[in-house]
Every structure is written in C-alpha cells, then in structure tokens.
Write a structure and sequence with these properties.
- By secondary structure, the chain is an alpha/beta fold.
- The chain is 50% helix and 17% strand.
- Strand 3, helix 8 and strand 4 form a beta-alpha-beta unit.
Length: 301
Amino acid sequence: MKHWFSHRLFMACYQLVVHLPQRWIAPLAHACAGFTYALGGARHTILTNLEIAFGQQLSPRELGRLYRDNLRATWLTTFEVLWMARHDRDWVRRRARIHGWEHVERAREQGRGVLMLGGHYGNFELQNAVVALAADGTYHSYTGRQRNPHLESFMMRLRTGAGVQPVPRSAETSRRMIRILADNQMMGICGDLNTRHGRAPMFAPFFGKLASVPEGMATLAVKTGCPVLFSWIVRTAPFQHEIFIKPLPYPRTGRLSVDRAALAACFLAEVERVIRERPEDYLWVHKRYRTRPLSDPAPVY
C-alpha cells in the first residue's frame, strides 16, 4: 500500500512537470530548492559530505551556499529526467553532444569490449541514454534496484526507451557482464556510490578520506583486460549538456589485488577531479562514506 501511494504521488508530480512549458522548469527547480533548503532536507548528509570535501577551503557560509546550489542542481536534474520519459529518442539525442567518441572506437578495435566508468555527477541518466544511442544497441548499463517496484518499472521503461540495455543487480550480473565484454560490446557502470557488496570491500581515497569502491567493477576490468574509459556530463544550460569521454589508464603489475586497487584509486581520482570543477552538480545527498574500513572505523553520519 505504501509503495502504491508513493507511486501515485510520483506520477501526479510527473504529469504536472512534463506538461509545463520548458522555460518554467529551471525556475521551478529554483523554487523547489528554496523550499527544500527551508525544510533542511538532507542537510546533515550533504553538509557532512561537503565539509569532508571542501571544509578546508570554504567557510561555513560558503558551504551553506553550495548546499543550496546542490539542491537546485538536483531538482533540475530530476525534472530533466522526467522530461526524458515524455520525449522520443531524437529529442533525447539532441540534449547532449559527445566529445571523445574516437576513444570508444579505438577501444572496440581491440575486440575485448569496453568498460565505461562514470559517476553520479550531473544528469547521469541522460549521459547513459545519449551514449547508448550513439552506441546503436551495443551499450549496456549496470543498474541498482529501486525499493518501490512501481518506480523501478518506470525507470526501466525510461532507460530502455532511450536505448539503454539495463543489467540489474542479481546473482547472474557478473557472468552477464563478462559475456557482454566478450561480445565486444560496451558495459557502463557508475561505480562511485557507497557499497557493502563483496566479501572484502575495497577502499580508495576520495577527497582525502577512504571511500568504498565496488570490488566487482575493479575485478571485471582487471581480469578481462578490457580497455577502460571514463565519462562525465556537464550542463551548459537547462536541457543542454556536453558529454566527455577519455581513457582511464591505471598501472598494471599482473597481480590482481594490486591492479584492482590501482584502478579504484585512478577512478575515484577522476571523479574527484570532475567534481572540483563544478561541485554543486554531484550527488552529495548520498551517504558516500557510510561503509568504513578497519583503519578508519568511526561512523561519518
């Protein structure tokens, strides 16, 4: 009953947003951010993350301003994603221009598939969709599962409608990813969220503090030896974006544990680099440092 009610509320908001004139979406995001700021929505989590990342460079007042800017960017991304579900693939394709596709082509020439890594930065759903359309049916994306099955169905329709081939988390996920790479196709993973999966969680520095990294992602890259690329998206205006793709090299020694750690560190360093350019566009509402290593066990949130 709870899932049904929340889904009906979500669909009512969806119908309202997608039928507004496009020029109203940015002001609406601004208004929603102001309302959320007044209520203190996710304030503790976001400010804790911002304090870890920028506490030594920014004053409390500046951190508070960044908190509000982050709420505005998050609302705008949410509304943009809802609009994706309303429009066709041509509309979605025109929302972003890709830079660096030649790296994908060169990587696929090796015949070992392509692992495309990214973070929850900017409109990452649009990024996935536009890359999938450019890949013309050869792009797969790892997806977690929504707790609400109705919302999960909505997001699945949105992704597949835009050309993404989702790979949901399951017992078969690893084997399916290996097959995708063996068929010389593309496997996309946003691997920057906190993870508790895996028998031995991996950790790498993220803004000077150890953060967990998906073990499976690093193991997949190292064991298959496939080319690894890094991709991110930047908003230039509401509903207009630029996508960038570059190689993600990492030191290889032939030792699995060492190479996995190297990949994890290089990946989070790239995510951090992108965030520092426009920190308001990251998913700071996520409890990134929830899982702690034995060397730093104190709870963060």
